[in-house]
Amino acid sequence: MQSSKHIYLIGICGTAMASLAGMLQVAGHRVTGSDAAAYPPMSDQLAALGIAVHQPYAETNLNPRPDLVVVGNAISRGNVELERVLDERIPFCSMAAILHDEFLVGREPLVVAGTHGKTTTTSMLAWIYEVASRTNPALAPSFLIGGVAENFATSFKVRPTRPFLLEGDEYDTAFFDKGPKFLHYFPDAIILTHVEYDHADIYPDLEAVKTAFKRLVNLVPRRGRVVAFDGSANVTECVARAFCPVERYGFAEGSHWRVTSLRHEGGVSHWTLLRSGERFAELSLPVAGEHNVLNATAAAALAAGQGISVAAIAEALASFRSVKRRLEVRAVVGGVTIIDDFAHHPTAVRETLRALRGAYPGSRLIAVLEPRSNTLRRNVFEADLVESLALADRVALAAVFKSESIPEAERLAPENVIAALNARGIPAAVLPDADAIVAALAPELRESDVVAILSNGGFGDIYHKLPEALTLSSRSLL
């Protein structure tokens, strides 16, 4: 691609699109874009980069006419900007296609894929490479992560070295390319964390999801490697026909990479990692949750196979600082701890609440959920959602985000979830929006409570409104 193009991104505030915007700017292009709504952390990152974001969508945003338009996968026919692009035949492409053509050719792409844990695991892998590069500069990683990695304070880096670490998303690529984005990345090696039914808006069933991951595995060359979770029959099926070595990781006896002697002390996890039954390393991780121990183990396994030392792996994991909106403490007010987590699936909700139970033993745990992802807005996961939310002591459920866009027969019924929780003796209520939740919840909170705010979107700015309500309250939180 020639330098100094004006590249315009429709849907620029998505996590991958905002990262791509920064990468294209680093590569020397003039970058602008638009979105329906911008919210942190990606809006903050774009502002810090000085990349202009137009809101809302409008045909005039494309003046002056850009050289190339990148169409986000959330953009459909009928979007006024897309319609102008098509009418005027302005050159356009997908995020995944330009990422491959501009940044991955000639590199060593390492892709982290799976239904859960992609962002955190990719962040861990990038930090391992970063620590290793202190003694071997050739290992300094380029990366694209679907969130802001706190060790880097960014979601991307572009360097001239070969390693390029990517979060591999199974969601579709664009309105004109319905295949998964990760099929554009042609990885040299992959991590496969988990495989479950997700993205019910584009995948009709679990078999379709598994087919997508099987196709990713089929792209790995014979000289490559697959590091795959050992606790999922779906993962086992997806890696069964790999042409490259497959290394399983987890808790099972006989796994190539086995977690043993796991213990949690003061918010830090410690474990012994075995490699083919032999002690490989003693590892520590200052991030809550058994699921994060598995994420760290996967990152360690892939890094070790790429020649990174045990010392660098151990140092990196011990100093890992998580990812924005992944078990992120947003505020502590009057002894009330407010946590932000990007939960998008009942399993993610479950693992988040389990991690918080372990990190805050004895505290009352309040779950505040916005059904916003295409998965959580559908009733196919209703029973699973009840089971996950039942781990909380109290639940506040917002109305389904843009419920009118989901057919009524497929739409989650929050009142059913609440009724099922109440039947179990768990106080729960449906409230229309963030303001109503704050008004109802703030007066009831007391010292040592932990509030888990679960959403993959802006959630009416509840992350600021709840701490402000607690700060302004004149009463004692006892």
UniProtKB/TrEMBL annotation:
SUPFAM superfamilies with a match to the protein in the record: MurCD N-terminal domain, MurD-like peptide ligases, catalytic domain, MurD-like peptide ligases, peptide-binding domain
The answer to whether UniProt assigns keyword Manganese to this entry is: no
Keywords, alphabetical = ATP-binding, Cell cycle, Cell division, Cell shape, Cell wall biogenesis/degradation, Ligase, Membrane, Nucleotide-binding, Peptidoglycan synthesis, Transmembrane, Transmembrane helix
What is a GO molecular function of this protein?
acid-amino acid ligase activity
Q: What Gene Ontology biological process does one annotation of this record name? A: peptidoglycan biosynthetic process
Domain Mur ligase central residues, every copy:
112-303
Q: What range(s) does the Mur ligase C-terminal domain occupy?
A: 325-457
Which parts pass through the membrane? Answer: 7-27
- Pfam families reported for this sequence: Mur_ligase, Mur_ligase_C, Mur_ligase_M
Q: Where is the Mur ligase N-terminal catalytic domain?
A: 6-100
Q: Which NCBIfam families match?
A: mpl (TIGR01081)
Q: What protein am I looking at?
A: UDP-N-acetylmuramate:L-alanyl-gamma-D-glutamyl-meso-diaminopimelate ligase
**Organism of origin:** Edaphobacter acidisoli
